[in-house]
Amino acid sequence: MTGSGTGTRTAYPPLADLTTMRVGGAAHRLVTATTEAELVEAVRDADAAGEPLLVVGGGSNLIVADEGFPGTVVVVRTTGIEVPHESSCGGVSATVAAGEVWDDVVVHAVEHGWSGIEALSGIPGSTGATPVQNVGAYGQEVAQTIAQVRVWDRVDQRVRTLFGPDLEFSYRHSVLKESMLGPDAPPGAVTPRQVVLSVTFSLRPTELSQPIGYAALATGLGVDLGTRVPLRDAREAVLEQRRRRGMVLDATDHDTWSCGSFFTNPILTPEEMSGVRERVARRLGADGPAPPEFPADGGGRVKTSAAWLIDRAGFAKGYGTLDGRAAGLSTKHTLALTNRGQARAADVLEVAREVRDGVEAAFGVRLVNEPVLVGLEL
Fold first, then answer.
1. Is residue 370 annotated as part of the catalytic site, yes or no?
2. Looking at the DSSP assignment, which residues form a beta bridge with residue 53?
3. pLDDT tens by residue, 104-135
4. One of 261, 312, 330, 356 is an active-site residue; which one?
5. Which tens digits make up the pLDDT trace of 255-269?
6. DSSP assignment of 1-64
7. Which residue in 77, 150, 172, 279 is the catalytic one?
8. Interval 146-171 mean pLDDT
9. Which domains does the chain show, CATH number per domain?
10. Is 261 designated active site?
11. Known catalytic residue: 202?
12. With 0-12 CB in 10 A as exposed, 13-18 as middle and 19+ as buried, what is 88?
């Protein structure tokens, strides 16, 4: 484990270097954990000292304040994929260390003929972060394949195993994330009560993908919805969709200097959705386009598209960006806020507020940020 020693204050690099948005000042203290034991020790030491704690994996879902972080940052670099069980009948059980790069895990699964996470190709970040916000894309979510998660419980001071139902997965949410946002969360919490050590996935041994459940992906593959295709074809089709939207990291492309989708898709009651339709009709005309609607859960709520609302509220692709501002919307996708090369966290949040407030004024829907804001408020 590497970190600061005693005596002279160590100067750490800016946290911008550890995040895909590439903004944020330095940490008061920074520790890199390469083993599970080091990870537990670093978290336990910070909590025992009463220091603010930020655990960083791939940094793809973080926006850190320009002033930095006034506590301990633990960078998770643990590695390893173990397969305790694999059979044609029982499936594949793969246990992945929290620090493994997520897309490397998807590649490993595709190469070994394990189906279930191929539609999650190209998503940046670490494996340990995936259960926190129930990462999903193109018709798949990790909730569909996660069997269990081993965590360090910062309150009980012990290693625990949480099974699928324990995690209370929902759209971009879990009990892990709730421990940062819920009524019992301490002010400014940016690290869950349970720090992920490893994730066990239950996958299917097959060379074919799970049924394609996303219309644009099916169109790109030239197949009908519900069709299964070779795993490699599914992965390449997903990557093509993501590249088209600027969602595959590329150091030379500022459209990818982002946290991916900045806002979650709103989930509304039928009454709230009716109000949105009325506002859309007033703004775009009775014969104009209608907002997308998808069933959200068993409670009758409806999910609509944040990207659609942003665009129809007047924030087109490239908003801010094409005006030469330091931060702005991607030129490829209205849902991504991007750093054009020299942006500060304050610049990113300025654009985010403009978009959020503009959508609320137009349609009565207050968008919610997906990235974790560290030392910042939207």
1. yes
2. 72
3. 999 999 999 999 999 999 999 999 999 999 99
4. 261
5. 999 999 999 999 999
6. -B---SSSPPPPPBGGGGSSS----BEEEEEEE-SHHHHHHHHHHHHHTT--EEEESS-TTEEE
7. 172
8. 96
9. 15-76 (3.30.43.10), 81-244 (3.30.465.10), 254-374 (3.90.78.10)
10. yes
11. no
12. exposed
